[in-house]
Fold:
Amino acid sequence: MDFEETAVKARAFSYFRAATIDQALDAHARAGDDARFIAGGQSLVPALSLRLQAPRLLIDITHIAELRGIGREGAYLRIGALTRHCEMLTEPLIAEFAPLLHAAAPFVAHPAIRNRGTFGGSVALADPASEFPAMTLALDAEIEIAGASGRRRVRADEFFIDLFETALQPGELITAIYVPLFKADQRFVFDELARRRGDYALVGCGMLATFASDRIDDIRISFFSVGNRPTRAKAAEAALIGFGLDAEHIAAAQAALAGDLAPPENDEVPPAMRLHLARVLLGRLLGRLGEGA
Amino acid sequence: MTAPLTSLDRPNSYIGRSLPRPNAKRLLAGRGRYVSDLRLPRMLYAAFLRSPHAHAKIVSIRTDEARALEGVHLVATGADLAKICTPWTGTLDHFKGMTSAPQLPLPLDRVVWAGQAVVAVVAENRATAEDALELIEVDYEDLPIVVDIDVAREAGGPLVNPGTASNICFRSQIDSGKVDDAFAHAAHVVEEEITFGRHTAVTLEPRAIVADYDPAAGMLTVHHGTQTPYQFQDLYSRHYGIPEARVRVIATDIGGSFGMKLHVYHEDMAVVGLSILLGRPVKYVADRIESFVSDIHARDHRVRARMALDAKGEILAMDVLDLTAIGAFSTYPRTSVVEGNQVIRLIGAPYRFRNYRATLEVIFQNKVQTSQYRAVGHPIACAVTERMVDMAAVKLGLDPFAIRAQNVIPDDAYPQTSPTGYRFEALSHQACLKRLHELMNYEGLRAEQAELRKRGIYRGIGIATFVEITNPSPAFYGVGGARISSQDGAIVSLTPSGEVRCLISVTEQGQGTEAIISQIVADQLGLAQEHVKVITGDTEVTPHGGATWACRGAGIGGETALQAARALKRNILEIAALILQEQPSALDIVDGDVVDAGTRNQRMPIAEIARIAYFRSDTLPPGTQAQLTVSHHFAPQGYPFAFTNGVQGCSLEVDVDTGLIKLLKHFIVEDCGRVINPMLVDEQLRGGIVQGLGAALLEECRYSETGQLVNGSLADYLVPMPMEMPDIVIAHVETPTADTELGAKGVGEAGTAAASACVLNAVNDALAPFGAAVNSIPITPTKVLKALKRF
Ligand SMILES: Cc1cc2nc3c(=O)[nH]c(=O)nc-3n(C[C@H](O)[C@H](O)[C@H](O)COP(=O)(O)OP(=O)(O)OC[C@H]3O[C@@H](n4cnc5c(N)ncnc54)[C@H](O)[C@@H]3O)c2cc1C
Structure:
């Protein structure tokens, strides 16, 4: 045994490196509930070290070629589950066709974590404070899932169910995320309020709007760090659709947020404060959106 | 154009020169020898099962399954260790009437905070030890929990120590004058209650210890990441009944300490006992969560203060009550009341007023202990005083600089005694204020602030004067009965090759102790700095001394080195005089050569003197015994403390819609007496300020109503990071102490002392147009938005 004995504190586990999706699904099925897929490990490894999770088997999915790559497929950009956070910053296809993800990426953790953490892992984990899961909502993205019963695509709107609970069934794998291609009549904005750069936000928000001249034809506004799951602000959206981004309609959207968000009790940030911050952020973002973003 | 020659231009004049730390390269190259990295043959690893309850009776402990696990060598409970370790009590005699319950490595029948270690497991590796912890079953019976300070003070409320009369650990009062009278006749009175959250040190390297008991030799060696090896040598010896000479504590490289690593921790005491029980080396390194729940915390004060002023803005009196909650025990051996004691003694220290009254109440509760951490008490005393002064300035329509200039003790009025009895040799408040005013372009900042306010941008400017306690004499701990030295020792030798070795009792934690000691020795002896090797941190090798705490390394350790080097120089010149047939007074040493004192002509290298003395003593006159090793001890005399002073300023911007605060720039003018290495002094100030800014805005150990620490990870406990830190501009005023030849005072805590006060004042300056104010540290967005009534 040649590891530093003091450093390793996770419970012992077996390790299997899968070469294909089928191998991964198979290994998981055989291990039952006692297995975890590991991608970037940026959430799972801390959980193992803290013994918050102690699976018997880790299935390494990072060598499955099919989970990699970014490419156009019809009206969608297919982003492989293993796409790392840092690639959101550097890949030209992301900047061109999914610029909202490109804009959100610098806010996800720090470079060392972005170098390993994966898009699929972030969406699978569905941390309500995470940037990318919320952005899949704003983008109306579809999550492609491989499981025992084959492949299926689930709209982001149906994917996030509750705290760390998603449409993923035990043993299922996210293979890719499909994002509708960004269009010329669309605008996006993203920002978050955090006490330190790189932290999980107090409140964060991203949105994608389709304009017909100066009026909003369609808009999808998604918040994170506001509740049990990434949350679309549908009432605020409704207050904006069909109108220009003037002070009156921005105020209406801010007011409507009370119906969209129900922030939980928290010892540091009371619900009323989080709602206030969400309104401030929404106002600022809509202002930027109106300026062309 | 060439600058005029200064004393720095003569050869080997290292005092006052910016030089890199000789050990920095080794540490940067990854060659540090931290206790965390240490692996000894046959070494085992300890892990601790911790209490999930803040207060509970231990009904039973079942360990059979854990003991049976393969790879487990020992499972020990409180009872097992109590057989070999005597209890300790964290009180000091000079804090009259203070109490604290006796402590043991692991508890016998009751846990008193959530996270307290209860059972120890020693195994082949840490992971196996952790596996075994999961197999231990402890039955607890809940006891009433004391979390809130007001609940703790309620008569008839729950008690941290059942059977005692109250939760009060210590009370103290100072009353120096006619305070009621002064308030009755004051033209103006300002009053505020200010709270200070708990925070903790968060060292990069957590606490780490390897205890290695050799039963054959009856010898205990402890590799310990501590600032104070001699203190621990004494404690391990006395509590485990091993003669002091058979206890060796080695404290080599250490990844940050800040006062946190000079206290007795239950786990560390336990690890020594585990090694004695097993006769094998046992290692324990706290993980980050363990650090949060078991390292000492600091601060946690609630101070109610009043200040009386006359119509012209002259401060007449202050009246304060400091309530502080310290956890379930007072920390050993330095206690948990020093901080409160310093708070009430430092309040008002920069100012001239004479009428002062203060009450301190130190209270037990079911949380981890608080104790000394960088700038003990100073940030609280400073924030309370400086907030009062700013409130008074607003009330009187005076500028913050003007009211301070009017009230500080004038630079020409020293020596002075503060109303709390502190004796000041010489401070420079006026000079520092004047320098800061220029340094921060105060008028320019005010003009910019006014301009931006018109555009809805709210900037604040804050300043804070401070006084820092350094170079402590035995008045600090010795008089209270603690075996904590305030003297230091040095052994300086000329090697056979003509180089110099200096073994010294002050220790190195990355602040550059070894660098300045080598500068002082080289300067005093007259040789190149790279020819001086400094060795620290091993009780078997280095002489007994205070080591590192309370800003004493340069002031006391430096003076020790200076005098030792001078003594060695005398001895070298004596031998040189014999060889050269001269009077010693006619000779000097420059750059490693003996020279004529008058002409500076080279006579012979000191290496040659060493060669003759060590290998050809037969050529020296009969009766000559060359003494090329000198040992010297120095204890501060004269003033009980060398006080330093300074003033900090800052500029920041408050986002009044989100409550987020952006620090724009920070300034400090500091007077630490003789500056030995300006670069290291500036590093100390910057590091200290950053820790103070963390306290001001980010750092807080938050507890639930049931006494659980709710943010014990680095994701939730926010430490300052580079992106949020402002540029820090530094200037110096130098008022050396006349108590030593060196004239140096301390500087390690000055940055932390006033940074949070500065930010508090600046935030309140920014909020002034709204008639809003914050009175609580850390200043979180929640507090700012609440003050602004935004939600
Ligand atoms: C210090 C720090 C700061 C961070 N800050 C942020 C932040 O500001 N914002 C943010 O969004 N995130 C942050 N993260 C989390 C980071 O983004 C993670 O990388 C991400 O949440 C998970 O991705 P991963 O590839 O590392 O997943 P892993 O840790 O490998 O796995 C996480 C979970 O997802 C499952 N999983 C992974 N891939 C798949 C898949 N393809 N299909 C099905 N299940 C899968 C795993 O089984 C596991 O349960 C931070 C992490 C750290 C350590």
